[in-house]
Design a protein that fits this description.
The protein contains 3 helices and 25 strands. The protein is mainly beta. The strands form 5 sheets. The protein has a 15-stranded mixed sheet that branches. The protein has a 3-stranded mixed sheet with strand order 11-14-13, with helices on one face. The longest helix has 15 residues, at about 245-260. The model has no long low-confidence stretch (mean pLDDT about 90).
Length: about 325
Amino acid sequence: MLNPTCHIEIHDLETGKYIEFDFVNNIEIDRSRKTLTTTCKFTLPRKYKCFDSDNGIYVDINTMIKRGAKVIVQLGYDPEIRTEFVGYVARLGASTPLDVFCEDEMWQLKQNTFTKAFKKVHLRELIKLVYPGTAIVADLELGSFIIKDQSTAQVLEALKKFGLQAYFNTDGLLIVDFASSTKNGIEEVVYDFQKNVIDSDLEYTRKDDIRIRCKGISKLPTGKKIEFYYGDKDGDLRTLNYVNLDQKALEKIVKEEINKLKRDGFKNGFTAFGIPYCEPGYAAVLNDPEFPERNGSYLIEAVKTSFGVSGFRRNVILERRLA
């Protein structure tokens, strides 16, 4: 029988001290391609004693957990364990038991500020300005872009209007790309509905049933406007407005918006055990001998991981069919 196991470390970045423990009431990790920040919340008894590895003694955990402390969460089934979250303490709950709210590397990117105005800028140049680390960035001219006393996180949030998503994967790599994009050779994880899927609320949709039309407008410095329509002529109209985008960039953004919304396949998701591991951006390969219409490969949009006295689970949300 597999025994769920966890290990948590909390590092004080000012003193270099850290504490570690192997018991929690509950852990919840929320990760999505659609949200900027991955969050982790774990719950502990308010009077819990943890091991201070620096001094070799057990101490009251309330004296050791501070805002900004680095957090490493590992989960698995004994003896296999893997790192599922790396981030920082964002805040502490005031109630009993003790809730510790954490955010991934995006928390650090909420602490800085930038001010700069571009008449025209490429996405790679913009990301290089506000983020010093390694990133996968889409090839896109943004046109006019203004940053005024904004953090890196606020800049990344503003990119959503271009149909872009920004998030960190578990390896700490920043991804800034179109919502409809996928890369060749993405990681696959197999789910068999008769073996490792506990429950599901999957609902099948056909792209022909989704009627939508997108209108893109780019206002140029000369006062001229570029317009581009794409999608179903009888569909609900969605309008996107930009400044100083050229025709090629405008068409690319509008087409990506339609491609994101019109797909055959299942939506919603399912609940599975803690293994196999998966994360947003992986491909979930579904296999159901009793209902073969479920079979196929789907891009994973979001994963909510839960761990505690009730077990180790992953709620997997599907974004669209890949094959």
